[in-house]
Amino acid sequence: MELNSLSKGNDMAIFAAPKKQFQEAVRAVCAPLPRRGPKPILKNVYISVNGDVTLSSNNLEEETNIKLQCGHEGEATCLVDAKQLADISRLGSHDVLIVDVTPERIVVNGSTIPAYSPKDDDDVIPPSIVSRSGPDCGGIAVDSRALKAAIEAAEYAADTESTRYALGAMQFEFSAAVQL
After folding, report:
1. In what order do the strands lie in the sheet with 96-102?
2. What angle do CA 127, 131, 135 make, to 5 degrees?
3. Which class for 116: exposed (0-12), middle (13-18), buried (19 or more C-beta within 10 A)?
4. Inter-helix orientation angle 19-30/82-89, to 10°
């Protein structure tokens, strides 16, 4: 089956991956996800076909990214339920899985998983899951000792007893220094 015949339209991608490799990648990104997390969005896997095929997850403590070595065409991303993705990857007796990705859904060998849509404004994708890296994304150099000092100066205010994770977090925003 040729990928060319299946991939049509914008914001659509298709890739073919060995079933075992895909299942191992799904297991790896699902392993750190919480069973009962503070945010429903954290029970999802972000599938990105943009130059590479990448599966990502985030549990607010660590981010997991797995790149698949497989043929693909097109570019698209989709956020889908991790349990459904794990279940669907085990179906069928095929050695190769054909995965069709659009922002609205993914289809794995004919079985569809709809994209996750947040129910409220608080349930959004953690920034690290959708951030891109690379030479075209810019960057900023930060002295490691200065960063360590800034973290130590701010961490006293982080709540370590609460289940409200936002009170135990720090947000850093960096910008280039400007001299007048």
Report:
1. 71-74, 13-18, 96-102, 105-108, 111-114
2. 150
3. buried
4. 160
Tokens linked to 42 = 């954290």
Low-confidence residues of the chain: pLDDT under 50: 1-9, 128-138, 178-180
Q: What is the pLDDT of residues 117-167, one digit of tens each?
A: 877 665 665 554 444 343 444 455 566 777 777 777 777 666 666 666 556
Q: Which amino acid is at 64?
A: T
DSSP 8-state assignment for residue 21: H
Scan for tokens 């899985």, then name that residue.
97
d(CA 163, CA 153): 23
Q: How far apart are CA 145 and CA 134, in angstroms?
A: 24
| Rounded Cα distance, 11 and 72, in Å | 13
The structure's pTM equals 0.63
Sign of the CA dihedral running 138, 144, 146, 147: positive
Cβ(97)–Cβ(106) under 8 Å? no
